[in-house]
């Protein structure tokens, strides 16, 4: 279930949208969030409508999200799409990112086919409007080109997100650093990447934990540590993180194989 974007996020909408009544909007957003968390979706939807009628882009996006899921109102994905379009046109990056994903995969039940061109247009729009998710996705596409000039564009895209301590951006940059470190046999760059993974892993960020677990299991870049890799994958598997269970099985097989292997003995000295 998507979280309701609450009052603390209102600053990322256009400041002029609710300049005169921002204090009142904060109160309504806070009340709507309380109702939403209490699963009183109908009342939450009504509170959000009170802000949306003034043109508040964040509120309009929330109406779209709740309408898309059928929370507090009848489920209507076509109407949700219209809400997202409205919020996107008013400058709300999350709405533009939602539209990008709709065009990326298509949505036949509302008559929208997969459209790569529109996906890229809305993704770029979302990134420019401040969507962190879109920024990382744009950088991912640039890195995938496999050319130095595109790599630099991707890094430039990630830099402000990294400065904001946005975990997915830090993780993606670490993936790039690790790849370049491996390609160029550069242990310094490899260590920079590993340090980033360890830092994010210490904060519980699952993608970095997955990478760190694999590095420990393989023993190529860091010293092999199967028990620690097992611990990581066991934790992630309990959270149903994709590929964690499969990785856990492989590590446990490797541990079992090590235990079953005969202990090498030194030949007697003459």
Quick description:
The chain is mainly α. It contains 13 helices and no strands.
Describe what you observe in this structure.
By secondary structure, the protein is mainly alpha-helical. Helices cover 68% and strands 0% of the residues. The chain has 13 helices and no strands. The longest helix is centred in the middle third of the chain and has 17 residues, at 167-183. The protein is elongated and about 90 Å long. Mean pLDDT is 90; it is low at 6-22.
Low-confidence stretches: 6-22
**Number of DSSP helices?**
13
The largest sheet is: none
Strand content: under 5%
Order of helices and strands: HHHHHHHHHHHHH
Q: Using DSSP, what is the number of strands?
A: 0
Mean pLDDT: 90
Element layout with pairings:
Layout: H1 22-37, H2 41-52, H3 57-69, H4 77-89, H5 93-105, H6 116-128, H7 132-143, H8 148-163, H9 167-183, H10 187-202, H11 206-218, H12 226-238, H13 244-260
Keywords:
single chain, 270 residues, mainly alpha, 13 helices, elongated
């Amino acid at each position: 279930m998507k979280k309701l974007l609450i009052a603390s996020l209102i600053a990322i909408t256009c400041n002029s949208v609710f300049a005169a009544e921002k204090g009142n909007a904060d109160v309504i957003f806070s009340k709507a969030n309380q109702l939403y968390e209490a699963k009183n979706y109908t009342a939450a939807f009504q509170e959000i409508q009170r802000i949306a009628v003034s043109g508040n882009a964040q509120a309009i996006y929330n109406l779209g999200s709740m309408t898309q899921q059928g929370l507090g109102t009848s489920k209507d994905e076509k109407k949700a799409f219209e809400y997202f379009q409205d919020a996107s046109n008013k400058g709300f990056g999350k709405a533009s990112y939602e539209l990008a994903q709709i065009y990326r995969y298509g949505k036949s039940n509302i008559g929208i086919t997969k459209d790569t061109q529109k996906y890229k247009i809305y993704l770029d729009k979302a990134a420019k409007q401040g969507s962190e998710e879109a920024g990382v996705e744009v950088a991912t596409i640039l890195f995938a080109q496999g050319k130095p000039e595109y790599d630099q564009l991707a890094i430039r895209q990630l830099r402000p997100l990294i400065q904001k301590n946005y975990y997915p951006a830090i993780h993606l940059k670490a993936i790039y650093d690790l790849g370049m470190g491996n390609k160029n046999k550069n242990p310094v760059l490899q260590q920079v990447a590993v340090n980033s993974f360890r830092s994010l892993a210490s904060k519980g960020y699952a993608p970095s934990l997955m990478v760190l677990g694999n590095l420990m299991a393989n023993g190529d870049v860091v010293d092999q540590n199967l028990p620690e890799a097992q611990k990581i994958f066991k934790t992630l598997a309990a959270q149903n993180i994709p590929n964690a269970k499969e990785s856990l099985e492989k590590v446990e097989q490797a541990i079992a194989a090590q235990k079953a292997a005969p202990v090498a003995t030194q030949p007697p000295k003459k």
